[in-house]
Amino acid sequence: MAELTSRQFHKNLWKMADFIKSNNLEEKLEGVKNLKQCIIQANRGLAFLEKYSNYLEYKRYALVEYISNLRNAASSTVKNIYNWNQYDIYQLKTKFIYDDLVHLSKNSEFDFKEKTLTFRTKEITLEGVNLGAFDIKYDVRFQEYSVAAVNPPHEDADHPHVKGGSLCEGEGEQPIALAIKQARLCDLFDIIESILSTYNEDSPHYNIELWKGQQCEGCSEYFQDDIEECSRYRCHRHVCSNCSNTCTDCDNTFCSNHIGTCEECQEPLCDDCVYTFDDDGYNYCSDCYKKLKNQKEEEEDADDKELAENHVYQIATGFPPFEESI
User: Fold this and answer.
1) Which of 1, 104, 144, 246 is positioned for an S-S bond with 108, CB 3.0–4.6 A?
2) Where are the alpha helices (DSSP H) in the chain?
3) Among 234, 235, 227, 269, residue whose Cα is nearest residue 252
4) pTM score of the predicted model
5) 227: closest CA among 215, 210, 211, 209?
6) How far is residue 255's CA from residue 236's CA, in Å, rounded to a whole number?
7) pLDDT, tens digit, for every residue of 178-209?
8) What local confidence, expressed as pLDDT, does residue 45 receive?
9) pLDDT along the chain (326 residues), means of 10
10) Contacts of 148 by beta carbon, 8 Å cutoff, 6+ apart
11) How far is Cα 226 from Cα 241, in angstroms, rounded to an integer?
């Protein structure tokens, strides 16, 4: 609120504190009105029962049940008012709320027109994953709050225990409700920040592993970037660089199930780029296959040439080359 002077800002803080007090007390006064209405209706029911019980005997039980329900409702209201009296009616003063607002102003933004204040937490780290800071927006008119990540590290979720801006409060539900009723704003934000700083693996909206990245289906580790899908048709396995290899022929990445090695050069070779010879059954890459094929062809040519020369020699001399050499 840079456009406000310090004096104006604190004046607005005081007005907001007074509004919070009035808003909370209005809820309590409504409870008193409900209690009075219950008592009036109960008295009317008792008077009706006393006056007409002689010839409305058959309705006695229904009336007794009706009055019993009124009594229970009145008792519940009395209990709530008693709980409020323990703290709120005595302690709920503008000065105390104002002090909280002044303290919160260091890390909060105020919208005096909309009657909201937004508190920014410290950076939250869970299971070694930095989720960044969070904004807790509190609407003092409706006594409701929402939670949102300042810079969401994941596009689909802000926090394992936050969904749609709503925090899964867990065991903090009652302390939060009490802090709201008693207008203890510093305590309210401290409780919410504490819950955000804790990971409960039994009841998250989203598993923390979602922020750790994608899981490798080879080693089961999680990675943010170092992971690729196997290029084999209909495989769809996602593997990290340690659990995959790039075929030396086609340059595609494959998981360990669909890649082997060339028998000659020992380079990675996928199932689709394999060359073999009928006489040995080994797998070769295209370069090694061509080289070996040329060698085999040269050896066969040399053998054919030698055989032809021997044949010519035998015809000319009448002796086989082997006997001549002896």
Assistant:
1) 104
2) 6-52, 60-91, 94-104, 173-181, 185-196, 209-212, 286-317, 321-325
3) 269
4) 0.51
5) 215
6) 9
7) 888 878 888 999 999 999 998 888 878 887 77
8) 65
9) 60 72 60 60 64 57 64 61 47 73 84 88 85 91 90 80 89 89 87 91 79 80 77 86 88 88 89 83 87 81 66 65 50
10) 134, 135, 137, 158, 162, 165
11) 6
Which tokens is 142 given?
């409706």
What is the 8-class DSSP label of residue 131? E
Handedness of CA 125, 131, 133, 135 (dihedral sign): negative
Render pLDDT for 27-47 as a digit per residue (tens, 0 to 9): 555 555 565 666 666 666 666
Q: Which pLDDT score is estimated for 73?
A: 64
CA nearest 224: which of 240, 235, 205, 237?
240
The residue ranges of DSSP E strands in 101-232, in sequence order, are 108-111, 116-120, 124-126, 129-132, 134-139, 144-149, 162-163, 166-167, 214-215, 222-223, 227-229
CA-derived radius of gyration, the chain: 41
Residue tagged 């409701």 (tokens): 144
Question: Using the 8-state DSSP alphabet, how is residue 121 labeled?
Answer: P
Round to the nearest angstrom and report the end-to-end CA distance of the chain.
Answer: 112
At 145 the pLDDT is 94
Q: Compute the distance between CA of residue 279 and CA of residue 13 in angstroms, rounded to an integer.
A: 90
Beta strands 134-139 and 116-120: pairing type? antiparallel
Measured distance CA(3)–CA(75) in Å, rounded = 50
295 with 277: CB under 8 angstroms?
no
DSSP 250-283: T--EEEGGGEEE-TTT--EEEGGG-B--TTT---
Q: Cα separation of 191 and 16, whole Å?
A: 22
Instruction: Name residue, tokens 């596009």.
Output: 155
The answer to whether the CB of 140 falls within 8 A of the CB of 18 is no
Q: What letter represents residue 239's amino acid?
A: V
Long-range contacts of 49-58 (CB under 8 A, 24+ apart): none
Distance CA 266, CA 157 (A): 45
